[in-house]
Design goal:
- The protein has helices spanning about 15-30, 45-50, 60-75.
- With about 80 residues, it is mainly alpha-helical.
- The termini are far apart.
- Mean pLDDT is about 85; it is low at about 80-83.
């Protein structure tokens, strides 16, 4: 979001909305999945991590919307018992 990790130094609204959305989706997927080198984070840890990067790595508006949608639809929750 601040342009430090984005090609061509784009910042804020200069970064395409698709890229701002994908940034959160990519990190969300990575930290909620078990990896050979680390275990997945809990939903609460994910929310805290994403919120901690709001305004720096992630668009604050996209962060808020992503968390609201996740909580509304129980995205990332283990609903296997409900099936």
């Amino acid at each position: 979001m601040d342009g430090t990790g984005y090609p061509r130094g784009l910042k804020g609204k200069e970064i395409p909305i698709s890229a701002r959305l994908f940034a959160i989706i990519d990190v969300w997927d990575a930290i909620t999945s078990d990896r050979p080198y680390c275990k997945s984070m809990s939903q609460e840890e994910v929310y805290l991590h994403i919120l901690s990067q709001s305004g720096c790595q992630f668009d604050p508006i996209v962060v808020q919307l992503s968390i609201e949608v996740s909580k509304t639809f129980d995205i990332g929750q283990d609903n296997s018992e409900a099936a």
